[in-house]
Amino acid sequence: MKRTLTAAVAAATLIAAANASAQTLRFAHVDPDDWTTSKKGAAGQVFKNLVEAETDLTVEVYPAGALGGETELIEGAQDGTISIAMVSGAYANFCPAVAVTDIPYTFPSAPVAWQVMDGEFGTALAEHCLQQTGLRTLAYGETGFRHFTNSVRPINSPEDMQGLKFRVQTIPLYLEMVSALGGEPQGIAWGEVPTALATGVVDGQENPISVIYGNNFYEFQDYLTLDRHVYGVDHLLINDEIFQSLSEEEQAAVKRAAVVAGTTGRAIQQFNSAEGITKLEAEGMEITQPTAEQMEAFRAAAQPPVQAYLTEELGDDAEWIERLSSAVEEASARF
What we know:
Layout: H1 2-22, E1 24-28, H2 39-54, E2 58-62, H3 70-79, E3 84-87, H4 110-118, H5 120-133, E4 135-150, E5 165-168, H6 172-180, E6 184-187, H7 193-199, E7 204-208, H8 209-214, E8 223-239, H9 240-245, H10 248-282, E9 286-288, H11 292-314, H12 319-332
Parallel strand pairs: 1-2, 1-3, 5-6, 5-7, 8-9
Antiparallel strand pairs: 3-8, 4-7, 4-8
Pfam family, one: DctP
InterPro entries: DctP_fam, TRAP_DctP, TRAP_DctP_sf
Family: Belongs to the bacterial solute-binding protein 7 family.
């Protein structure tokens, strides 16, 4: 009798813990919490406020890498210790097809990118990744367009990049891209970038405007080229088992809040990018906006080698390269 009672108490405890867990969603990202400067920070706060206003769910937001880097956040979401993770490039390590969105000079503008990611292509990619990872894509945000800066000369064409050393993320696609453009890619850890720029270990780097300004790179870099070589996508992911454990009403509220959160993140990123260009110019950076003809030269140099590299790397998933290209072409016709 005692053993039966003990087992019953243990079972009741587990059920209570599971129910309590289902009432709390842990939302994690690596950006600062300040919504005025952080797209993920803004998204997290909006998501929390909307979900808690419309349901009895509680949302705990863990910003600034409090629960780990992006790889750790994705792994945590997969094992359920984190409910929701908002991540960018690292997701390609878990769902390789995601890497196609980083093909250089694919998206001509942010509105085109939004149309593509919020349309049939993004929906299909989300379903594909759900099957591979167990993570449901609730919505897309953005880390924004990436641009080159350097301390040597203005860059108007791939020829201007010849001989210049650029810090890039230690991701093969980025190494391939910079090499194809004529630069010398250097894989340097993020924490070492300011020192590398200040001491001349590298001549330049590439990042979104908000990152360039927010990290005071204008102190080491004289030239900014608005070439928009890669559009960074944010993925707002939820553990699918946790999602399925919610009621239909809660699921609907979570999906609505996620879409608003992703849209808010995009808006914050766009605002800070536009304002950041003005601020960088005020700090003395010389800003170059390539013409359409010059942009085509960048695309022609970088895109084919990267596509060839991805075709080999992705295997059967290489079909996503053409699917993305077709989606971009269709969306571009509207703008």
